[in-house]
Specification:
Pfam families: ADK. InterPro entries: Adenylat/UMP-CMP_kin, Adenylat_kinase_CS, P-loop_NTPase, UMP_CMP_kinase. By secondary structure, the protein is an alpha/beta fold. The chain has a single domain (11-188), classed as Rossmann fold (3-Layer(aba) Sandwich), CATH 3.40.50.300. It has helices at residues 23-33, 41-50, 56-64, 71-84, 100-110, 126-140, 147-170, 183-199, and strands spanning 11-17, 37-40, 90-94, 115-123, 174-178. The protein has a five-stranded parallel β-sheet, sandwiched between helices. Helix 1 (23-33) packs across helix 8 (183-199), helix 2 crosses helix 3 and helix 4 crosses helix 5 (100-110). The structure holds uridine-5'-diphosphate and magnesium ion. Residues 19-20, 23-24, 40-42, 45, 62-63, 66-69, 74, 95-96, 98, 144, 153 line the site of uridine-5'-diphosphate.
Length: 200
């Protein structure tokens, strides 16, 4: 266990990619390999629905239509998760920020409290993502793992999330990885690229 001072400014990486690109799977492995904490923004929102939060119906409506939940809701959940977690100084935030509103509010509310590291973008073909989500839908129990919602999630990713990715690319804060390969290959490439990026 770490002892945190009031000056604690945890390290934060964002992991982005389309639905089914492998963010969750890769973050689970990264959290073990790098001894850090994986926070899935989508999972925190799904937990908030189960916990009957005051934003339950807003979150449910957004998730089921592939839209992005208003950022104050998501950021509040992430803020709590980061500052309640005491086992690591480093956090991998999976699936956030998804649009400009997310990014701008994160900067306004959180930037001064954390140390931003980089963004990992898992680039994956649509065919692979459709195949993986179709497979996952058999067991995930997720209300958004169906072809209609998936189409909408692709549109949101293309119209909104891609702009965020370009923003980080222009600032040389982006690490881009081909997500069509095997789990082990993708993991290896992420670890390698992180090492290279942060040694520069
Ligand atoms: N979502 C959101 N803001 C976030 C993360 C997720 O609004 O910061 C919502 C959005 O509707 C998205 C859904 O939660 O389509 C599922 O996100 P998740 O990242 O779990 O799905 P994945 O992309 O990993 O399949
Ligand atoms: Mg996920």
């Amino acid at each position: 266990m770490y002892k945190f001072s009031t000056l604690r400014k945890p390290f934060v990486y964002f992991i982005l990619g389309g639905p089914g690109s492998g963010k969750g799977t890769q973050c689970e492995l990264l959290s073990k390999n790098l001894k850090c904490v994986h926070l899935s923004a989508g999972q925190l929102l799904r937990n908030a629905i189960s916990n009957d939060s005051e934003h339950k119906s807003t979150i449910e409506n957004c998730i089921n239509s592939g839209r992005i939940v208003p950022s104050h809701v998501t950021i509040n959940l992430l803020d709590k998760a980061i500052f309640e977690e005491q086992s690591s100084e480093t956090f991998l935030i999976d699936g956030f920020p998804r649009n400009y509103e997310n990014m701008e509010n994160w900067i306004a509310l959180m930037d001064h409290k954390i140390t931003f590291k980089s963004v990992i973008h898992i680039l994956c073909s649509r065919a692979t993502m459709i195949q993986r989500i179709t497979e996952r839908s058999k067991t995930s129990g997720r209300s958004d793992d169906n072809i209609q919602t998936l189409e909408k999630r692709f549109i949101t990713y293309q119209n909104d999330t891609y702009k965020i990715i370009e923003h980080y690319r222009n600032r040389k804060q982006l690490i881009e990885i081909n997500g069509d390969n095997s789990i082990e290959t993708v993991q290896g490439e992420i670890l390698e690229s992180l090492k290279k990026h942060h040694s520069q």
